[in-house]
Amino acid sequence: MVNQVVEIFWEMCCSEAPMSQQTQYRFSFGPWNISEGADPFGPEVRAVFPHEEKFALYRPLGFEGVQFHDDDVVPDLETLSPDQVLKKTATVKTMLGNQGLTPEFVAPRLWFPAQTVDGAYTSNSAADRQYALDRTRKSIDIARALDCKAVVLWLAREGSYIRESKNARIAYQRLLETINQMLDYDKEIEIWIEPKPNEPTDQAYVPTIGHAVALAYASNDPKRVKGLIETAHALLAGLDASDEMAFALAHDKLASVHLNDQNGLKYDQDKNFGGANLRGAFNQVRVLEEAGFGGKGEFIGLDVKAMRTQQGRGVTAHLTNSRSLFLYLVEKVRSWDRIAEGQMIEARDYEALEFAILKHLMGLK
Hints:
Blueprint: H1 2-14, E1 26-29, H2 51-61, E2 65-69, H3 70-73, H4 82-99, E3 102-107, H5 126-145, E4 150-154, E5 159-160, H6 168-185, E6 190-194, E7 203-204, H7 209-218, E8 225-230, H8 231-236, H9 241-250, E9 254-259, H10 278-291, E10 299-302, H11 317-335, H12 338-346, H13 350-362
Parallel strand pairs: 1-2, 1-10, 2-3, 4-6, 6-8, 8-9, 9-10
Antiparallel strand pairs: 5-7
């Protein structure tokens, strides 16, 4: 009986990613992850580091993919004509090609402009909603000009500070309408929804991956609507990031991840991956590894920021440390004794299972 349970458990965990076909992971980050170190209450502690100089750092650091906002590609986007936008995009595309880099996605930055203060797609103002849609179409044009087929929606201001200020049912209908308009605008683009429960809004719409998957299924082309899960965002919702990833994977809806960490239910910290909860990081890596995530070319995205007080110019240790920890945990997942695990599960000896996991993470016998 024990052997049968172990065999079933092994097949369940590893059928999509047998150990003989181990994933070779690719990594990405956004240029904002090499930042000036400012916070709302103090000065910048590191000098500005131009995006053009950042691209040259990716490959030596072990990264291939570049995450973009639309105005990371084309600064002052709103002041330029469509031809000027495409010309500047072509320049960035050449820069990426020269460095052997791949654009992972482009995201419309819909939280800085004045028209998005009360929301973008869900604003009470029809004019502001139209602005958001027009800006999103520009983002799609930029993505396609970069030979990138993914647009990320981080719905930063889609929510409310008081419930009575918006009709949530209508707001969700407007979000779905926007997604369908994006799908109609470009027949190949994929839409990746990045859920977050709060900040900058108090109560955000689409706070979890379940909400994002529901929108995907309700859309006109569910195969092209997926999710991007950030560790910290799941934790801010009071959820386990590995379970959120597992849910998306079960629906074949996990397009990418933003790995980082979070110390409690406070502002979005973007701490180094595993920096606050090593066991939680292990479980995220395990979920991804056992599902074969990355085997179709998906990136392991990092959204980590250096500690604000860290001095220097072009500080990158937070990126390399997070990448190294991910790979270290991959080896921990691959070397974990699944036969013993199956036996402990069959015996329902979860105390032994927990202690074995902790010893394995610490390298103890």
